[in-house]
Amino acid sequence: MIHTWNVLKARLGQGHRTSDYPDEAPVLPERFRGRPVIDDTKCPADCDACEKACPTRAIRFDRKIQLDLGRCLFCRECVEACPEGAIRYSTEHRMATRTREDLWIDGKTTETRLASALDQKMRSLFGRSLKLRQVAAGDCNGCALEIQALNNVVFDLGRFGIQFVASPRHADGILLTGPITQNMKLAVQKTYAAVPDPKWVIAVGACAISGGPFQGSPAIHRGPDDDIDKKDIPSIDLYIPGCPPHPVTILDGLLRLLGRLESGA
Fold this sequence. Notes:
It is built from 8 helices and 10 strands. The chain is α/β, with parallel strands linked by helices and 265 residues long.
């Protein structure tokens, strides 16, 4: 009896742990590496140190910097290589987009073109209850751990009617992590085929979007938009960049896709 009382007392002392997101913006530490910010005015015309330093060729430099969030590992190599401080990381967590092209940013980018909502028909089907089958297609478990964190008491993904399921036959779509290795290609195709129509695909993390640090290897199929046969996976409906993306970045993208957040919020 005394033990039970101590447990209850400790729980009451912990207070409310679930985040108020999206009603309140998340408070992220200064060391958090969110969307990069580029200041072209600091770039010498003959300096391409950032492009040379990038391990995944996420940066193109032609008198101005262009950065591909789909390839970016948020590793700070470009920040440390730039002698003028033209690139820095912000604490902006909102980065999910609906198209691959929208992941490109430059010095004129003050806000990423964030993910728009599904059309009205799809929202009527999935807006209140969404079931996802996560497929680890050769990932390092970094993204998988952040996805798992969405189910804890802080983020409580279930309160939005979003759940992960064990069988693709019970799912509305698949959530991909990893660069799709040769050994996982068939598994990804079969999982996608088993999901009932209509269905959609979410690519989480640099590996799923572009292949990340493994791009170009014959052992992988980079990202699903590159080498996977289009008849098996026709398109990606949501891109969530990061290495790995923060749980709130993933949650933000999912809620935008479902029309739970306004485009400017």
